Structure formats: structure tokens, C-alpha cells
TrEMBL record:
An annotated GO cellular component: cytoplasm
InterPro entries: ACMSD, Amidohydro-rel, Metal_Hydrolase
Keyword Ribosomal protein appears in the UniProt entry: no
SUPFAM superfamilies per record: Metallo-dependent hydrolases (SSF51556)
Stretches the record annotates as Disordered: 260-282
GO molecular function: carboxy-lyase activity; hydrolase activity
Biased composition (Basic and acidic residues): 265-282
Protein name: Amidohydrolase family protein
Length: 282
């Protein structure tokens, strides 16, 4: 099933403001309206059969409300798979994980920069331990800051993978937004998925090709980062910049079947495949 693995939408009453804030934060004119209807229309135009919508709470006090929205998205149709949110400072996270699981959600978005904590925060450890059997994690990785000052650098995620070797994990933005050379050193080739969202035009073609060449091709996921970018345009830019064949691009669009069954609503039972050494934020 052709899947856009990285998208965001907002409630209709806040979508316009949220899109304007996103555009200002990342210095782009957002392509989309930020609504579910606009996203699904654009996904159909791009030939996508499913989209993964990522939700993140900026503060602990927003966790329940944001997850209410995620649960409403999850129940929309089999073409929509929603990721819920959690925060290490939210005291009732165990109960919230059970609520998400009961509602059919099987993924969690973690955005340390947007949520104001660091990936090396020890409060994350019991949460990851408790959730790893039932949820896939998608981590925003990278920042313009140097890695040691970045809340979400590739090295911090690599340390978590060392501690939790069976964690089902997607590193957004090819492993490190604006930190791609560090992603190449710390994450590429490891037992995780990388998504392609928000890498172009900032990522130079030679480094893009190196990242894609050195990571297992079945562990790369297409992501548009809608509403920042249009899915069809993101596909075209990725194929042109990376010099991908139609078959290679199609593989990236369908690799999500290893993480999500055809409906996008049930968990996997088997562990991850091994490859040896290996507001919403975007």
C-alpha cells in the first residue's frame, strides 16, 4: 500500500493559524491548508493510498486533548493511521498509553524540540520500556544547533537504540534535519526506519544519495511533511534529487507495510528485521 508516512493536520478551527505558525517557523510557504480534507485530496492526487498523521503535544497539559484528536483521526477511515502523543512530564502516561492502544493507535510521535525536553532525558526511559511492545515511535531528529546542544540529535537517538534494541523506530528527516552528516555516522545502517520528509532542498544531492545508498532500502519511508509540502511535489523532488528509478521510489512508498498492516489499524506481532550494523512540529 502506497503510504505517506509523515503528515500533519489540525482541527478546522485552528488549522489556518497552525499552518501560518509552521510556515513562519521553517521559513516556507506551506503548500496545504492543514485540514484532513485537503490532505486526503492531495494524497489521492499523488497516488497515495494511506497517510500517517502525526500528533504531538507541546506541553504535558495538552496530551489528552491532542490524543482525543488523534483518536478521532484514527477512526476516520482505513486510509488514515494516526500517531498519538506522550510527554515524559505527563504523570498519567501509563493510562494514556492504554487509552491509545484501546482506540487502535499503534504509533507515538516524539518531537523533543517542540515538546521542550531532550532525548537523553531519563524520564523517557520507563515510557519507552512500557510502550515498545505495542507502539512504533517516530522521532523528530535534528536541528540547526550543534548536536551537543540539540534536544534531538542523531547521537541521542543512537544511545536509545543501544538501550532498547527492539524498539520499532522511525527517525524523521532521514535521521537528522540539518544534521545529515551526523545521521550518516550515528544512525544510517542501524535497525530503524528513516523517512524522507523535509530534507529537500536543504540536503545536497551527494549527501542525500549517500544516506539512501548506505541504509537498507526496505527501511526508507516516503514522507511529505504536509502541510509544509505537497505529497505529489515531494515525490517528484525526491526522485529528481536522488536520481531514483520508478521502482526505487515505489519501494519507498510501500515500505510502510512492514510497520503497518494493510488497514493501518493493527500492531505487528513479529520483531524488527535485523540488518547487521546498522502545534505540530515537522
Amino acid at each position: 500500500m502506497r503510504t505517506d508516512c509523515h503528515a500533519h493536520v489540525f482541527p478546522p478551527r485552528t488549522a489556518r493559524h497552525a499552518v501560518a505558525s509552521l510556515g513562519a517557523r521553517y521559513g516556507v510557504d506551506c503548500a496545504g491548508k492543514g485540514t484532513l480534507e485537503d490532505l486526503l485530496e492531495r494524497e489521492r492526487a499523488a497516488g497515495m493510498e494511506r497517510c500517517v498523521i502525526l500528533c504531538a503535544a507541546a506541553t504535558p497539559g495538552q496530551v489528552v486533548a491532542v490524543n482525543d484528536f488523534a483518536l478521532s483521526l484514527q477512526g476516520h477511515s482505513p486510509q488514515v493511521a494516526a500517531f498519538g502523543t506522550i510527554h515524559p512530564a505527563f504523570p498519567a502516561w501509563e493510562r494514556e498509553l492504554e487509552r491509545l492502544k484501546a482506540g487502535g493507535i499503534r504509533g507515538l510521535k516524539v518531537h523533543p524540540d517542540f515538546q521542550h525536553f531532550r532525548l537523553d532525558d531519563p524520564r523517557l526511559l520507563p515510557l519507552l520500556e512500557a510502550a515498545q511492545d505495542d507502539f512504533c515511535f517516530l522521532f523528530h531528529i535534528g536541528d540547526a544547533l550543534p548536536p551537543e546542544k540539540s534536544p534531538s540529535c542523531p547521537y541521542k537517538l543512537a544511545a536509545l537504540l543501544d538501550r532498547f534494541p527492539h524498539l520499532r523506530c522511525v527517525a524523521a528527516h532521514l535521521g537528522g534535519y540539518r544534521q545529515w552528516s551526523h545521521a550518516l555516522e550515528a544512525l544510517v545502517g542501524r535497525d530503524l526506519w528513516l523517512d524522507t520528509s523535509s530534507c529537500l532542498p536543504l540536503l545536497e544531492p551527494a549527501l542525500l544519495k549517500a544516506l539512501l545508498r548506505k541504509h537498507p532500502p526496505d527501511r526508507i519511508l516516503f514522507g511529505s511533511d504536509y502541510p509544509l509540502f505537497d505529497p505529489a511535489d515531494a515525490l517528484k523532488r525526491l526522485q529528481a534529487a536522488a536520481g531514483l528509478s520508478d521502482a526505487a521510489l515505489e519501494r519507498y512508498c510501500t515500505n510502510a507495510d512492514a510497520l503497518f498492516p494493510s488497514t493501518g489499524h493493527e500492531p505487528r506481532d513479529e520483531g524488527p528485521v535485523r540488518h547487521g550494523a546498522a502545534k505540530e512540529g515537522h
